[in-house]
Each structure stands twice: as C-alpha cells, then as structure tokens.
Amino acid sequence: MESFLEFVLKQLVESPDEVVVTKLEQGKKLVFKVEMRKSDVGRVIGRSGHTITAVRNLLSAAASRTGQQVLLQIVD
Q1: What DSSP letter does each residue of 6-23 carry, written as one string?
Q2: Looking at CB atoms within 10 Å, which of 22, 38, 57, 60 has the fewest?
Q3: DSSP readout, the chain?
C-alpha cells in the first residue's frame, strides 16, 4: 500500500524525488504522512480537494480488505 501511494503521488508532482512517505502503525490504523515541496501540495490536493479525496478513497478501499483504517496527512 505504501509503494502504491508513493507511485501515485510521484506521478502528480513536479519534483518526484522530494516526495517522502512515512508510515506509522497504530493498531489497526495506518497513518501515512507525506512531505513534499510546497509548490507541489496544490497539485496533490487538486481543485476543490478532488484529487486528494480520490487518493484517500483508493487507500481506504485497499485497507478495508485487510480490516484496517488509513489516514493520509500532508505535512507542511
């Protein structure tokens, strides 16, 4: 799941080398913290938040197969 998230995010940004995904496990909850260049944050969020919502929905669907919950945070 982490590699999938990295792949998707790197396709969206201008500086894919600066995307850093950190995974934290808290019981059945997975927290992904994403750091990137400030100029790329808008590209990942998308117009009215549609892009980030779609990414979160994909992660939630993948996590529900294993009975987990996922939280995606963009770190400034």
Answers
A1: HHHHHHHSS-GGG-EEEE
A2: 38
A3: -HHHHHHHHHHHSS-GGG-EEEEEEETTEEEEEEE--HHHHHHHH-GGGHHHHHHHHHHHHHHHTTT-EEEEEEE-
pTM for this entry: 0.88
Q: Which two tokens stand for residue 8?
A: 């998707």
Give the tens place of pLDDT for each residue, 53-76.
Answer: 999 999 999 999 989 999 999 997
Domain boundaries, the chain: 2-75
How far, in Å, CA of 7 to CA of 54, rounded? 14
Residues 35-54: pLDDT tens digits?
Answer: 999 999 999 999 999 999 99
Please name the amino acid found at residue 62: A
- Architecture, CATH, for domain 2-75: 2-Layer Sandwich (3.30)
